[in-house]
Amino acid sequence: MWFRAYHISILKNTNIAYKKPQERKIGYIGSNLGLFPHLSILENVSYGLKFNKGRLKLEEIIDIFNLKDFLKRKPHQLSSGQKQRVALARTLCTDPGIILFDEPTSDISYLEKPLLLKEIKAILKKFNYASLFVTHDITEAIYVADYIGIMSDGYLKYIQSSSEFLISPYDMYGAEFLDFNILKAKRTSIDKVSIQDQIITTDNLEFDKVLCLIRPDVIILTRQKTNLENCLPCEVMDYSFNGHVYSVYLNCGFKLKASLTKYYFDELNIKIGTNVYASFSRTSVRILPDQ
Amino acid sequence: MKHNYLSDKALKVSFLIISFLVIFFIIAPLARLVLFINLKTVSVIEQSSVLEAIFNSLSLSFICGLISIIVGVPFAYLLSKNFFKRFNKFVETISDIPISIPHTVAGIALLFIYGKEGIIGSLSYKLFKFQITGTRIAITIAMLFVSLPYMVNAAKESFKSIDKELEKTAKMLGASEFNIFRDIYLPLSKSAIYSGFILVWARAISEFGAVVMLAYYPMTAPVKIYNAFNEMNLETSAAIAAYLLLICIGFFLTLRFLIKR
Q: Which ipTM did the prediction report?
């Protein structure tokens, strides 16, 4: 018996699944950008115009991307940021229905990245181009994306607007990506849960068994008790420093991770075994039902 | 610390000695050969049969090089694209066979196709009253048979080495396969095809075994040298050989120089 799979991919009201790649009108920018090494920048940018009619004029695009001074150069004479612009300019020339970025920033320096990503986003927004940006780096996704999706084993496991994703992921899968504290808890009253033996005050609860999600950077560490709704005495188990913030691993009867700027870390004089108070407001605790 | 390596210096010195031996191995016989052009033999080049033989060698090997580009590059393109799927390795091996068989074997094998009794030879004789063997066409066929693999391999390796991302990108920009071949694969493989051409040309000019089986006349330079070796004295044949050597080196260096630019 024969089965036939019918693939449907809709782009601008047409099914492109059975179209040739050339006719799909998808802009593609791969990890090494695919600039043609033997062609000049001008020839690179205008290459797609041989086969497509663009919405923007070539001169406009050269203007937008500030490429006037490099038109006669070859790609190897450009910096990686400039190459990136050429690749995007070339793609926009063909007026694609959607642009696929496949890890395009892999060889861009750490310092250049945020600026370039911001620029890419601004240009895409200005001309209203939809794009799909594939990356391994969650911070990069947060920089560029309006919506963030998480792929795993070939499936889209999670999707949410990036502003909501940062504050309240809707399941454990998303929360793990943002390094939230994920705590299993039981409801004890309308706005209180117990975790191990500790009681935490939260917003009003709808479920008996819940997961509490707490961002590590909403937790305040102090030597004295605070008057926030939740103030737990705990002991420092371990800490690490990534160059920007300290991550402090605490034991308050359950494990809790807090992040700290260097100033507060030094101020508190934190060492392994130090006793501190971890405080956070009730509104910074996100609740998910625990299935 | 005990170790069984050569010291860095000892390694360089011993490899240098070996390299000098290799250079000597190549240069010594050739240099000695050139000395055969002396007052007594300098005039062999003026014999019309010698001049004609050298001209045949140069022109036919050049034509052979051009044909190898026309037929070798498209074939190499399909091979590099894995066009023959699971038979691709098999087809690649077939295209390499002429390199690995003795050239006299190649010559005899060709004789059974292009000779009077052969499929193509007899057909051409019946249709056009044209006998292939013993003509310049036969010489070119023999040269092409033994040298074509060099073009196919050079172009194939170059096509394979081109970043697949370029092709993907070009496709997404709307380029057809023909455009991709013309705008990306060909220009990026230009120098590889050119050096393939030089290899083919050099291999074709030096071919003796297959050529002599298919066409003793008109003579190419290697056949003429063999002929002089048999019928005249060693000195005359050595002088012709020396001339051929100098001409070949001249061409080779010129082409090498051109490719560098």
A: 0.77
